[in-house]
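Here is one chain, start to finish.
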Amino acid sequence: MQPASYSIPDDIRATLVRLLAYMGGLAGLAVAAASFFAAPTEIIAALGSASAPRPAWSTVERPYPAFELLMPELAGSTYNYAIQRRAKDGARKDLLSFGEPAEAGPYVVVEIYRPAVASDRFLDASSEIATRIIDYAVTDDVKPDGQIDSKFGPVPLVDFAVAPNGHERRCLGFARPLNQPAMQIAGWYCSAGHEVVDRAMVACLLDRLTLMNGDAKLAEMFARAEVKRTFCGQRNPILAATPEREELSAKLKSALRGRLSHVP
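Its structure:
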């Protein structure tokens, strides 16, 4: 007797082969579909990354100071000097600051903004300051608060209050546009708490702002301003200018007289 032979009939074998081929085709289609639907997402992500807008302002890594502000009253505060450039046209901001928004002491910021194009227009003092404190927790909106005299001429003031990290402080802001050359000096003086800021301190702050490096037009503008400086050096001995600043003032006056004598 011969052993029984177990073999799959040809029609069943053919059916199994077709079934396996069909299942393999389905798997291939699934992989292709996954790749098809995933690709647009990756492409969109790549395009989004490539088209992401650059920051409007970039900070210079090693700033070379163009201005100086000596404030002995703020000697214990952290001092910082930063320069920012606007990518689209090269406009420049020099930022001098004492203290930090959330620190216990005063917080002072002076910004010298120099546009790159003559078409730039400055807003009123309230609007200029409001745009600069938009990231702070403003507890009392910016409102006009008269003006003060300075070596740069009359300077509009604004009053407001901020509360970074829940610590409220009273502030006195200022913004003064200038024409020759086109620029704006703006900023604020925030007290350590709810104390009203002394207007005389802001006037002295502006009078003590001096030029260290600049072109001829900027140097002449500061020389003319220095001649008009009267507050810190004469009216208040507590806020009096340092001897170094008085010596610089005399030099600037002499340089200005020499330059004006050659004007036809």
